[in-house]
Write a structure and sequence with these properties.
Elements: H1 2-22, E1 38-44, E2 59-68, E3 78-83, E4 86-92, E5 95-101, E6 104-113, H2 117-120, E7 123-130, E8 135-149, E9 158-170, H3 172-180, E10 183-191
Amino acid sequence: MVAMKSRLFALLLCASLIPAVCARAKTILPDSCGDDNTRFDVKLLKNQPPLAPPADGKAQIIFIETVDTNGAFFTTPSTRFGVDGKWVGANRGNSYFVVSVDPGVHHVCANWQSNTDNESRQVGMEKFTAEAGKTYYYQVMMKRKRSMIGGGPGGGGGTITDKSFSFSLLDDDEGSYRVKASMPSTWTTHVEEPQP
């Protein structure tokens, strides 16, 4: 009887902790991003239209996501991109989208959209001055590499997975190549309820 009560208590304790464990912690993001509760459901388009030049008097930013799994299992990640404190879109996998901006100083941001704390803290940001008629290529590069550790003949070892997230401005040649090697993305957004 005592053992049954102990098991029941342990079960009730575990059940009460599940919401706390499952709740996604709010990520503190730079001012150049958007609200952490805004989430993107990204789809890739099969047909790649030719890229148009920037509209008269405007500059354009092409946000690119490139994923390198290096043979390691990697779910297709999504990255949200912000300009001047507002999310402007998202990519998933090897994809891109285009945003038109006014000339002047802008603050751009990239954030790995994930329900895992460690991944959702991955943020890149940069300040730049846009000139009318120019195109700027910003890339998030995600890498995952699986390595063997320990062991030797007879086993006993394991694997470790290294993840990296980088955000950078590409030159025109590499940027246009990355666009050609990617698919355009589209998305829908939804806002999650804030966590207490």
